[in-house]
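Following up on my earlier message about 4'-deoxy-4'-aminopyridoxal-5'-phosphate. Here are the inputs again, as you asked, copied directly from the submission form:
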Amino acid sequence: MNAPHAPINAVPHLSRRGESLGTENAFVVLAQVNALARAGKDIVSFCIGQPDFPTPQNIQDAAIAAIRGGKHGYTPSAGIDELRAAAARDIGARRGIDVRPEDVVVGAGAKPFIAYTIASVTDYGVGDEVIYPVPGFPIYESQIVANGAVPVPIFLRESRDFAFDPAELEAKITPKTRLLILNSPQNPTGGILSSADLDAIAGILEQHPQIWVYADEIYSRLVYEGRFESLAARESMMARTIVCDGASKTWAMTGWRVGFAANRALAPALTRWITNTDSCASQISQWAALAAVEGPQDSVDEMHARFRERRDLIVRLLNQVPGVTCKSPGGAFYAWPNVTQACRRVGAADSEAFRKRLLDEAGVAVLADIHFGRRVPGDGQHVRFSYAASPQAIENGIDRLDAFVRRHTA
Ligand code: PMP
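Thanks, got it. Here's what our run produced:
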């Protein structure tokens, strides 16, 4: 019998977890931008973090061959053997570490491994702590919270070129710390953990054997100064570091959904998570990713060169805008200018008010620092530009930003 007065089509409550699950605001802002564009507004968008290049031809061909060749059923949850072996070789060679095919798990993107790792190394509601970078990829915090662990932010500061201070890490570690999340090159700042920082982090973690490390290295092939380095290459860190990389950024394959996680001890648990969720990554995409890893890398080099030119262009132009200063990011495809003075000039209360007005009044879409966690105390206001956009779009967008700030400067 229905409860009295309950409407016949009433919907039961969502759980607290379901209600409070966080999101990635890039997708929210993107929906706004698309709505404005559909309404006929001319928008220059710097808000989405994906390469604007097509997936290279040899990779497309491999996917079509897989479809035509009947390779479209389920695969083992950890991925096809060929791809696990190729990814193990590639991940290992680029970091100078020894990775076996059995250590590698293929997922539907790199993103799912964030949740699977947190769920595999922390328990729900018992106070297990996870240290993660702020500003940072918002999914870290939302998955820490959704999995009932305690989020412990570690701040990335402009004065350290957006790497965190190892001394600050040491101060945040407690006996309840279970996991440290690292992301280098970093989203949203483009910052890189230097060799010295990685040595310092390893030195600290050696004193705390209960801590796992999730090394989100999805931008490993987009480093513009020096060589990419992984914490996993420190001998004492290899066994407890989950190295995560993927096809999305390196081969312009965001929608294909292929990512890799490598860790000997955790691979079986990660595989079970996939069995419980996706079953496996798309088989078609896995054969495409195999061609990506094993085929010619000229398109990767070409994209790298284009991103580097765009980085230099956007940083130069941003620094010419009154009230804007921008450090040159060492990797990824993001610029993270300080807009504290520009906010004052235009009378915006903060970076989010600035972002909204920039979109409404100048037709330039960016993300604000608050989309990447709480604002770093004492570090001012920042916005994120994804420079995965053509040089013309960069020139046009920064021109509009410049005109917007000058128009409102008293
Ligand atoms: N980690 C970081 C830091 C990212 O920026 C992204 C993508 N924006 C991902 C993981 C997820 O990548 P994928 O497409 O492989 O799921």
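One observation from looking it over: The CA atoms of residues 6 and 12 lie 11 Å apart. Hope that helps, and feel free to reply on this thread.
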